[in-house]
Amino acid sequence: MKVCVTGGAGFIGSHYVRAMLAGEYAGYEDAEVTVFDLLTYAGNTGNLPIGHERLTFVQGDIRDADALAAVLPGHDAVVHFAAESHVDRSLVGAAPFMSSNVLGTQQLLDSAVAADVATVLHVSTDEVYGSIESGSWDENEPLLPNSPYSASKAGSDLVARAAWRTHGLDVRITRCSNNYGPYQNIEKLIPLFITNLLRGRPVPLYGDGRNVREWLHVADHCAALQLVLTRGRAGEIYNIGSGVEVTNAQITHRLIELCGADTSLIQRVADRKGHDLRYALDISKITKLGFTPSVEFTDGLRSTVDWYRDNPSWWSPATD
Ligand code: NAD
């Protein structure tokens, strides 16, 4: 079994690669893994066990047909994480998001067809559905993205579906809720707040802090992806979530406790433009494949804080 992981040097992709190489996925204990990653500001080879005998790292761009043609032949599956991933960055410059996420996905799919790759797992997000005040989304909800990031991911989902219909490529799409865990770039809410609080710095809380997110530990997301890769079906979409809904204000208070900091560090800032109020997923479909989240939120958050506390060398070079 040979698996190509695009974006495998980022937060979620690197977890998936480490777990696969550590033998955590049944049937894939001997899998050879190729990480194909451009190493943007978000990619870091320090997230990977470079030198592992079953790991090959290739620095490359998913928009580069020649680079993909040199790498993809011989792979059984592509797990596609590579993307521009930060909503706030998309608000100030949407072009890289459309370029990497939409055109990059289209090129990757075309190259997968040309290279005769059997299966492509396209990793997407619940943000493509927009915002929901009550209830939850199933996989048939219309796509109503509100940010350039989520619009680019929605575009990539449609491109992925079209590759299945047009070329008969076995493409499976997943839409996951917010992830947290170790190795997440400190531009994102949880690691930003942890690393600020550990240094006694203020944490910028958007608006009234009532925005609700459904949080899933990165290990559970990756386990669900593996389930879709092994038991999912071509052309299908699978929501992945935890059912754990937490407001940004609640998260902030929990992190303050875990970091031993003071609530005076909360700094209210103007709300994010077009800020989605709430995301909530119906996960019956992936549950039927056998998925149950295993990391309890309180434990996962505590171990995440511990990881950032114990690994300042991973994140402090990125800060002043
Ligand atoms: P990340 O920003 O940490 O990592 C993205 C990786 O993609 C980086 O290593 C980067 O170098 C690489 N990359 C970017 N553009 C590339 C290109 N053109 N060619 C090759 N590599 C490129 O992101 P993440 O948080 O690990 O997210 C991974 C995927 O999961 C994304 O597709 C994202 O939309 C999706 N997702 C993320 C979350 C979340 O909470 N973080 C939730 C649901 C879905």
Helix content: 25-40%
SSE string: EHEEHEHHEHEEHEEHEEHEHHH
Sheet bearing the most strands, described?
A: 7 strands, parallel
Q: How many extended strands?
A: 12
Low-confidence stretches: none
**Beta-strand content:** 15-25%
Rg value: 19 Å
CATH superfamily grouping of the largest domain: NAD(P)-binding Rossmann-like Domain
Structural shape: globular
How many structural domains are formed by the residues? 2
What is the level 1 CATH name of the largest domain? Alpha Beta
On the 0 to 100 scale, the average pLDDT is: 96
Q: So how many helices?
A: 11
How does this model look, in words?
The chain is α/β, with parallel strands linked by helices. It folds into two domains: 2-179 and 217-240, Rossmann fold (3-Layer(aba) Sandwich), CATH 3.40.50; 189-211 and 245-279 and 290-318, Alpha-Beta Complex (UDP-galactose 4-epimerase, domain 1), CATH 3.90.25. The protein is 38% helix and 18% strand. The protein contains eleven helices and twelve strands. The chain has helices spanning 11-21, 65-71, 87-92, 95-114, 148-167, 189-198, 218-231, 248-259, 284-288, 297-310, 312-315; strands at residues 2-6, 32-37, 55-59, 77-80, 119-125, 170-176, 178-180, 203-206, 212-217, 237-240, 245-247, 266-269. It has a seven-stranded parallel β-sheet with strand order 3-2-1-4-5-6-10, with helices on both faces. Strand 5 (119-125), helix 5 (148-167) and strand 6 form a beta-alpha-beta unit. Helix 4 packs parallel to helix 5, helix 6 packs parallel to helix 8 and helix 6 (189-198) crosses helix 10. The chain starts with a strand and ends in a 5-residue tail after the last helix.
